[in-house]
Design goal:
6 helices, Alpha-D-Glucose-1,6-Bisphosphate, Chain A, domain 4, 323 residues, alpha+beta, eight-stranded antiparallel β-sheet, 42% strand, 16 strands, 25% helix
């Protein structure tokens, strides 16, 4: 769906699409440079450059290359970021260094402002995503139709990228935005949420997946209830033990909130928030970890979280997805 209307700021183009992909994945293909480079620009165009400083006040710089080899650069500043719901950013023509240039620099006619505004919203619709683009400030005339055709061509390519990435996304995705205190693990399991909840709250099930395969998992204490505590050890083949402990703040079928502390680095406590979302017989699991500092968060990522977490989630899938 595409709508064009006129206001005091110029033409406003609104395009809505339903993408057959989870909202977090659609957000990802809008915010990860390597993915943007696979779909940015209409059919026949490529995107050799995509640079992103994903924070409010941060800038982006994209290059779009025509079939004839001519590069068209664009830049803007992020005004609002609400993952995974909303992006608001300015939009301007630019040169290869990111300097704003007039539309005439690329032979564009019409009364183009130096800065347009683009608002992208992402609405969850039972595992699919309603995406809406609102592009404000376009000059009247045929340029609006040209912009609409260009966006729709890009979205056709985006749809193909989403189809390619969807099967990979169902595997474990780690979301960790630069400079933030949190990191999230997201995965869709082909199992009802009740099985996931039991796997997180039954010690007999926990020992079957809680940690990489190279470790034996030993439950020292496990009281999965509001106010309860837990302590779990990982033991390697040489007998070395790595102990972790915490307390439960909330334990319910849809949400578990707990603290987590590695005893090898005491007094560095993170808050874990696990949610189980029903998706027509499947379950979207999101496990968010909130750290005391960005340094703690980045240290955890570098210590093996990015390598070990997919394996742990694979073990959990093997357990809960048994038919």
């Amino acid at each position: 769906m595409a709508i064009a209307s006129q206001n005091k700021k110029g033409k406003e183009l609104i395009i809505s699409r339903i993408f057959d992909a989870p909202r977090e994945l659609v957000w990802k293909v809008w915010t990860v440079p390597d993915l943007i480079m696979r779909w940015w620009g209409p059919e026949g165009f490529t995107a050799p450059v995509a640079k992103i400083d994903l924070r409010v006040g941060g800038k982006y710089l994209y290059a779009m290359r025509s079939p004839e080899g001519k590069d068209f650069w664009s830049t803007g500043i992020y005004r609002e970021l609400v993952p995974p719901e909303r992006i608001v950013a300015t939009d301007s023509f630019a040169d290869e260094k990111g300097n704003v240039v007039p539309a005439s620099h690329y032979g564009m006619t019409g009364d183009w402002p130096s800065e347009l505004l683009a608002t992208m919203t992402f609405e969850d619709q039972k595992g699919k995503t309603k995406f809406t683009l609102r592009h404000e400030g376009l000059p009247p005339g045929e340029m609006t139709e040209s912009a609409k055709a260009g966006w729709n061509g890009s979205f056709d390519k985006l749809e193909k990228v989403l189809a390619e990435e969807k099967s990979l996304w169902i595997k474990t995705m780690i979301v960790a935005e630069p400079g933030k205190l949190e990191a999230s693990v997201v995965r869709i399991f082909d199992a009802p949420s009740e099985r996931l909840f039991r796997a997180y709250t039954d010690p007999k099930l926990m020992v079957q997946w809680w940690g990489p395969r190279k470790y034996a998992i030993i439950i020292d204490k496990f009281d999965a209830r509001d106010g309860g505590s837990w302590r779990i050890l990982n033991r390697d083949s040489e007998g070395n033990e790595f102990a972790f402990h915490g307390v439960y703040h909330e334990v319910s079928p849809k949400r578990i909130v707990y603290t987590f502390e590695w005893e090898g680095l005491p007094e560095h406590v993170l808050l874990g928030i696990v949610t189980f979302e029903d998706l027509n017989g499947k379950t979207k699991l999101t496990e968010k970890s909130v750290f005391e500092s960005v340094e703690d968060r980045d240290g955890m990522l570098k210590s093996g979280m990015e390598e070990g977490t997919p394996e742990i989630m694979d073990r959990l899938a093997e357990l809960v997805e048994k038919k």
